[in-house]
Every structure is written in structure tokens, then in C-alpha cells.
Design brief:
Layout (H helix, E strand, L loop, with lengths): L6 H10 L4 H25 L3 H131 L1
Helix pairs in contact: 1-2
């Protein structure tokens, strides 16, 4: 076996650091044994190239057998699948025809319902427009009445304010005359 480090250099290094030659050699010897044991365990789990090729050939022969079985099954069931496929195609065509007929009926019904709803909506819009116009007129009338009331209240407030100012002025002048 090859070792991937220099054992003599390790012995010299240990001796330089205070170990005796015999101690250094025993330590290096123990390390070599440990490494060899570890490598033996690793090699036990490994396969050789020959063993790998044999296993590969066995797997390939199993795959070839499965392929042959699949071809036989495919040929025997292919005709059964073909006839079943034809039946399904016929059923699908019948169902497609029924669906097309139903869709045509639904479209006609929807068009009729849509036209009825359009006329109802137009009538409703016309009623809403009339009601809106009447509401606008009522609002305009009420706004005009409120403006008139506001103007009359303004004039009343101005009269009361002027009267109050003149009254206060008269009272102030009266007090002024009394004091003088």
C-alpha cells in the first residue's frame, strides 16, 4: 500500500518536539496501522470494475426481457385498444351533436330573453327620466322659494339690526346727557 505522507519526516518532526526516536516510531507505526484498517474497511464496501460490469450486464439483460414482454403485450392489446377507441369516437360524435343542439336552443332562448330585458330596461329608463325631470322641477321651485325666504329674512334682520343700533345709540345719548 502507498502512504500519502512521509513517515520518516513525521518521525523527525516528533523527535524535534521532544519525543524519543522509539516513541516517534511507535506513534507513526500506530498511525500507519489505523490508516490501513480504515482503508481496508473502505475497500470492503467498494466494488471492482469487473464486478460492476457483471452487474451492469445483468441489469441490461433484465431490461431486454422486460422490453420483449412489453412488445408482446403491446401487440396483443393494441387491437383491443383500437376497437375500444373507435367506440369512444362514435360516442363522442353523438355527444358532440347533442351538445351543439343544446347550445343552439340555449342561444335562441337567451336572445329572446335579452330582447325582452332590453325593452324593459328602455321603459324603465324612460320612467326614471320622467321622474328625474319632475324631481328637478320640484328642486328648482324649492330652491327659488328658499332664496325668496332668505332675502326676506335678510331684510328683516337688517331692519332689526338698524332698530337695535338706533335704540342703543339713543340709550347711550340719554346716559351721556344725564352725566353731563
Amino acid at each position: 500500500r502507498r502512504l500519502f505522507f512521509d513517515t520518516h519526516a513525521l518521525v523527525c518532526l516528533l523527535e524535534e518536539n521532544g519525543f524519543t526516536t522509539q516513541q516517534s516510531e511507535v506513534i507513526v507505526s500506530a498511525l500507519v496501522k489505523i490508516m490501513n484498517t480504515n482503508l481496508d474497511m473502505i475497500y470492503k464496501d467498494m466494488v471492482t470494475k469487473v464486478q460492476q460490469e457483471i452487474s451492469l450486464q445483468q441489469v441490461m439483460s433484465h431490461i431486454a426481457g422486460v422490453k420483449k414482454d412489453m412488445i408482446i403485450l403491446e401487440k396483443s392489446e393494441f387491437s383491443a385498444l383500437r376497437s375500444e377507441n373507435e367506440k369512444i369516437k362514435l360516442e363522442l360524435q353523438q355527444i358532440k351533436k347533442q351538445v351543439v343542439d343544446e347550445i343552439t336552443k340555449v342561444r335562441a332562448d337567451n336572445k329572446l330573453n335579452l330582447n325582452l330585458e332590453k325593452s324593459r330596461v328602455k321603459e324603465l329608463h324612460a320612467q326614471q327620466d320622467r321622474a328625474l325631470t319632475q324631481t328637478d322641477r320640484k328642486i328648482d321651485t324649492e330652491v327659488a322659494d328658499l332664496k325668496t325666504m332668505l332675502e326676506s329674512h335678510k331684510l328683516d334682520n337688517i331692519k332689526y339690526l338698524a332698530g337695535s343700533v338706533f335704540t342703543c345709540l339713543t340709550v347711550a345719548l340719554g346716559f351721556y346727557r344725564l352725566w353731563i
